[in-house]
Amino acid sequence: MAPDRSLQDVYFPELRCFGCGPANADGLRLRSFADGDGRAVARFTPSPHHDNGLGHLNGGIIATLLDCHSAAVVTHEAHERGWPPLPGAALPYVTAGLDVSYLRPAPLEHAVELSASVLSATEAEMTVEVVLAWDGRDRSRATALWKRWRPR
Ligand SMILES: CC(C)(COP(=O)(O)OP(=O)(O)OC[C@H]1O[C@@H](n2cnc3c(N)ncnc32)[C@H](O)[C@@H]1OP(=O)(O)O)[C@@H](O)C(=O)NCCC(=O)NCCSC(=O)Cc1ccccc1
């Protein structure tokens, strides 16, 4: 995989997801990369309008970043294991749960770093640990539950 191609560009270039869809010009357009060691990593530069009203990054934006970065690692894991999207689906899995802890304020003026890894995986569901950090400290952390998406 070419290093300049994000996991989003590889697996769902036409997706219009607000957080990570390459095709949503008004979205956050998160770009995640496989680090070759089973993790996905990303850097995200906040915009001033992502303010939470206290001069820090809004909690909903943080949750979206954690959700969407975990999507990247889940989609990559699914591809590696031979669990592609089912016929008619753009994605192989969908978020079924997201348990977020806001540990410290996250900055608005600096890029933040995301890291995610799959804790457990069956074809039915996966569990992911995902962290948002800045300046060497975890700012937010989440456990995400992903379930197989079956179009109906
Ligand atoms: C305040 C608390 C929740 C609890 O902390 P405590 O029980 O008091 O524990 P403790 O004192 O141990 O501090 C823990 C760590 O936190 C740091 N710190 C604390 N205060 C400050 C400060 N003022 N400035 C800078 N840092 C501060 C503190 O230095 C320490 O870090 P350290 O170990 O030294 O490196 C803290 O965990 C936190 O800020 N989390 C992030 C919350 C967050 O970003 N939420 C989402 C956005 S809100 C939203 O979007 C929703 C909304 C919008 C509009 C309207 C309404 C809602």
Q: What's the quick description here?
A:
This protein has 152 residues and is of the alpha+beta class. Helices cover 18% and strands 34% of the residues.
Could you explain how this protein is built, in words?
Helix content is 18%, strand content 34%. The chain has one domain: Hotdog Thioesterase (Thiol Ester Dehydrase, Chain A, Roll). The radius of gyration is 15 Å and the shape is globular. It has helices at 7-11, 59-81; strands spanning 32-34, 39-44, 93-102, 112-121, 125-134, 137-148. Strands 1-2-4-5-6-3 form a 6-stranded antiparallel beta sheet, with helices on one face. 33% of the residues are buried. The chain is α+β, with helices and mostly antiparallel strands. The protein has 2 helices and 6 strands. The structure holds Phenylacetyl coenzyme A. It comes from Nocardioides nanhaiensis. Belongs to the thioesterase PaaI family. Residues 55-131 form the Thioesterase domain. This is PaaI family thioesterase.
